[in-house]
Amino acid sequence: MSKDKVNPTAAFGLALLKQEIAAKPGENVLISPLSVSVALGMTANGARGTTLKGMTSTLGIESNLGNTNKGYAALLELLKRSGIGVTLDVANGIFAQFGVTFKPQFLNANKRYFNAKVEDLDFSDPETLNIINGFVSDGTNKKIDKMLESIDPDAVMFIINCVYFKGEWTAKFDKSLTKDLPFAGVGDIPLMYRNDPTVHARNWSGGYQMVSLPFGDSKAVRMIAVLPDEGKTIDDVLAALKADSLTNFAKQNEGSDGQLWLPRIEVSYENSLKASLIALGMEEAFDGADFSGMADADEISLKLGDVKHKTGFKVDEDGAEGFAATVVEVVTESVSMPFEMKVDKPFLKFVIDSESDAVLFAGLIVDPTK
């Protein structure tokens, strides 16, 4: 990843947002491009051939894994924020099925560049679900208690990213100025108000305007709100909005005098990103994948089963709080693990109808010849 691509999430995030909005018309949509990009960036270390090209092209990162890993490491280092008024924590983890052999190069790359916690677990043990959900809970400051409801029998690995953010506005809103005012399609809701110099821009050709509100003393992290002009729709804005417009705007510091009304926000979102990622070019990762960099293809055939995503975001007069988790589920159609089982002594035998669970025959075989 070259220096000017140290943050690969902007273009990918905008593309993914468009897909999710198209899939859920008229609904809230909230994603963490950072979380999704990091989780899939970790996963890419196990991809090879056209599977790798499809993933890196979708994410907007280099297919050279050495450069990509260094780029992610630089990004994660840059994002370490614990200054006055801002907290930003990122946690990565890999939970693998005990007994399945994964390549050390894959695991070590994720430990080294993503600081990933790697742990082998027995996926058939009910406690494993609690361990994985506990990792997500810790990584999101207890905001996501249950990421997984169950573990698919074909799952052999979960690659997880968690993001937690909390920031105080550099200039807080005056709570006494918050009033219930109309919000289109909803009714009267609390709108916060400020009349201070604020970083603002209007794109006449694109049909939108936007403001940038910084957090903390450093002002490095900002929330940007983009509003369609009268007569324009969200789809119009999405068609005109470019990733570099957002990232360049986030660097601006010169404020303009003006009035701003901003609603309090408290939203959450949960969805499988599989369909959106396939639409963006990652189809092969879910079907006919080459993850031979993750495990020996002669022993086990791997693909992505799902990419689960949960997010939440809250805005009030004091600041904002957000959390997200992305879980990449790696599955196999058949797990082939070396074993020896020599049936050369008395054994139990059952014949079971799997659909009805009826046990058709059950017995103890002491002498197979009689």
Describe the structure.
The protein is an alpha+beta fold. The protein folds into two domains: 235 residues, Antithrombin, subunit I, domain 2 (Antithrombin, Chain I, domain 2, 2-Layer Sandwich), CATH 3.30.497; 63 residues, Alpha-1-antitrypsin, domain 1, CATH 2.30.39.10. Helices cover 28% and strands 33% of the residues. The chain is built from nine helices and 14 strands. The strands form four sheets. A six-stranded mixed β-sheet has the order 2-1-3-12-11-10, sandwiched between helices. It has a three-stranded antiparallel β-sheet with strand order 4-5-9, with no helix packed on it. A three-stranded antiparallel β-sheet has the order 6-7-8. Helix 5 links the parallel strand 1 and strand 2. Helix 1 crosses helix 9, helix 2 packs antiparallel against helix 3 and helix 3 packs antiparallel against helix 9.
> Quick one: CATH superfamily of the largest domain?
Antithrombin, subunit I, domain 2
Number of domains: 2
The helix-strand sequence is HHHHEHEHEEEEEEHHEEHEEEE
Question: Which percent range describes the beta-strand content?
Answer: 25-35%
Mean pLDDT: 86
Structural class: alpha+beta
CATH topology of the largest domain: Antithrombin, Chain I, domain 2
Properties at a glance:
370 residues; alpha+beta; Alpha-1-antitrypsin, domain 1; 2 domains; 6-stranded mixed beta sheet; Antithrombin, Chain I, domain 2; 9 helices; disordered N terminus
Secondary structure layout plus pairing:
Layout: H1 9-23, H2 33-44, H3 49-59, H4 65-78, E1 86-97, H5 104-114, E2 117-121, H6 126-139, E3 155-168, E4 179-183, E5 187-194, E6 199-203, E7 208-214, E8 222-228, H7 234-240, H8 243-249, E9 260-263, E10 265-272, H9 274-286, E11 300-315, E12 319-335, E13 347-353, E14 358-365
Parallel strand pairs: 1-2
Antiparallel strand pairs: 1-3, 3-12, 4-5, 5-9, 6-7, 7-8, 10-11, 11-12, 13-14
